[in-house]
Amino acid sequence: MHLYRLDATAEIAAQALGADAGRDPWAGGYVTPGRPAPVVVGDGSAQSRPWLRPKLWGVPPPRGDQPVTTVRNLSSPFWIGTLRHPELRCLIPATRFALWSGTAGARQQLWAAPADQTVFAFAGIHRQGEDWPSFAILTVEPNRLLSHHGAQAMPVILRPGDYARWLTADWRDAAGLARPFPGQEMTLAEDPMV
Fold first, then answer.
1. Is a pLDDT exceeding 70 seen at residue 194?
2. What does the alpha-carbon distance between residue 107 and residue 163 come to, in Å, rounded to a whole number?
3. Tens digits of residue pLDDT in 33-56
4. Any alpha helices (H) in 33-170, and if so which ranges?
5. What's the rounded Cα separation, in Å, for the pair 82 and 143?
6. Which residues contact 153 (CB under 8 A, 6 or more apart)?
7. Less packed terminus of the chain by CB within 10 Å, N or C?
């Protein structure tokens, strides 16, 4: 996954995710790797209110210079140190994410989202880059709907009742949220604005 949309202002996204928008200037649109987008972060405690901060999509890699946009192997030593610290987990607000469906030469872009949420959240992690703070999205095996359309992975989509758990729980508890979102509760569209 290398493209998603957040068609909501920072204020609306923060409200949907139970966070403080602060002065985030986000007005809505596409998000691609290497570009800034709003991310909800906290201090790891259940007593504080999370807040929205702009961060670049793509964390510094363990080797090489290509930023890492998705986290798939949750038991990797590179990621486990970050995942064990709730203050380094984040919520990434979105309204749709892109996937490509079809055979070579006849591929079409589809946009997926939970059917019952206008603004939803991906589970993510954030780190400090050399110049800017950055984030990556957790991914898992795709559900049957997305697999049928050729997806090799899907982002971890959290339910609103799980936002605080992702940001504050012990890793053993939070890790249970890293599972495919049910396909029967999702919509697919060719137009990202549908």
1. no
2. 34
3. 999 999 999 998 888 899 999 999
4. 77-83, 144-148, 163-168
5. 26
6. 1, 70, 72, 139, 140, 141, 142
7. C
